[in-house]
Amino acid sequence: MSTRPSLVVVGAGPRGTGFLERLAANLPELYGDRPLDVHLVDPHPPGPGRIWRTGQSPLLWMNSQAEDVTMFTDETVRLEGPVRPGPTLAEWAGIDGRTFPTRPLQGSYLRWVYERARAALPASVTVHEHRTSALRVAGPREGRQRVWLEGAAAPLPADLVVLTVGHLDAEPDREQRALADFAARHGLVHLPPDFTADTDLSALPAGEPVLVRGFGLAFVDLMVLLTEGRGGRYEGEGDDLVYVPSGREPVLHVGSRRGVPYRSKIGYALDGERPPLPRFFGTGQTDALLALGRPLDFRRDVWPLVDKELGWAHYHRLFSTHPERTALPWDDFEKAYGAAEPRGAALAALVAAAVPDPADRLDLDALDHPLDGARFASAEALQDGLRAHIAADLARRHDPAHSADAAVFAGLLSVYAQLLRLGDRLDPGGWWHGFFSYLASGPPGPRLRQLLALSRAGVVRFLGPRVTVGTDEERGLFRASSEAVPGERTEARALVEARLPDPTRELTGSPLLRALYEEGARATASGLLVVDPADGRVLERDGRPHPRRFALGPHTTARAGGAFTRPRTGGVAFGQNDVTARAALALLRDLECRLPAPLSA
After folding, report:
1. Domains of the chain
2. Global pTM value
3. What is the Cα–Cα distance from 426 to 443, expressed in whole angstroms?
4. Mean pLDDT for all residues in the chain
């Protein structure tokens, strides 16, 4: 058994690669030329990992423009370690920065970043790649850990473990199990929540209706793979885009809680004066929340502050850039806005007096429920109404006259950074993350133009908001309906849940995390691993941070908004990687002269 110091990183996708980059950057200062074994555990290729693997369909795009994706630090990131600049995806690939690259291209970029980070390690560090899954981590708090790998006869020894496992699978909940059982009994197709690129869609037959529940990014992938992916093509451009079917497409009947797709990506740059953020939800407010000494409720304690912060971003931009559409001097509005209670009557009256056009006011509730109370005389009237809604959203999100929308996007990123400070005191739950994605992480504009073309071609049909999905035992069919079209019902022999898995604490599909929870690691109700926001150490149920276990990424309470970092935006994830890498190296340095305790099986 080797007595060399050993670091095991579970997950070698983008977050694991980012951690490795920071490990290499900080190693000369904190660890020198001491020997070290670094074990990377991931069944998927290091760098791209599962989600960004290069073998997936080139029809699938990133949800970010090439110029907005970087894996490298710059001077805007708060770091103790050295800044190691590098190219954005656009610069590396030599492509137009405003394009939305394919996911395989992003995977190639990530592989290059991984190889560069690995090459930056000194010869005293040996990297071992394990193309398998980690099943369990065990070991005493003050001693060496053991990491069991699928298919391995003996565990890996680890002086410390860093979990960067990324997005997780989930076991089906009660509803999904019941739907799967119904489908099996009646010979139907039921596809549960999954990463769309991993789903076998061959069971969905050409020309047949398919019920689709979910209108976010998983649906966009489904739409692409079942249309262009089956040989269809587009002709023309812009509003004149036409879809030419191959004849192999099913007919997708799509609905969701809102009944509309995520808001389009903003199609212009936010230039000129930017809102000074944070203002109403910053460190002062989060410190006050932490001082309450009780569990925090997102809707009661946090949402009013978030609402006021986003409103501040919106109106600051409107007054500074489009003053002709306001009716009060900015100084008067700013003073009154600051004094008003969040979401109160005084604030609503102020906005109504200061902003004459309701289209220039920010109403987050209306944005979240765009079709509340809407009724349509027929299914065809609903199709016309939804196409009009999508077209209006596209027009607005590509018109700099509505640049206050882009300021709200900046406000959302600021809010996300503050939520991280609340750590395990607050679990915002699925609603907040869904709302954030709906406003800030919608599809590129061209995808929504394709959706409109597919709707006009009859390949996509809209079901409406608050869709309910049921089963008909007598007829052996799935059925869906929406209160927006009274009396209308759609039946099909196939149902697709177009959304990501929900790996709650009870339903996580990760044997590794399940074992950690059972052993005593803390988790929120929604299944996030609770970590110390200071350095990413995993917290145990008694509140103590585990000295030899760290975790970074979307499966933790320190999750950052967005999949990748925009250049020169502070890079919260980069800062987290840096802090954790430095803590890991300091621990390894202090342990280097000790002999490890013998391992028992």
Report:
1. 6-170+504-591 (3.50.50.60), 185-262+443-497 (3.50.50.60), 283-368+396-440 (no CATH)
2. 0.94
3. 29
4. 94
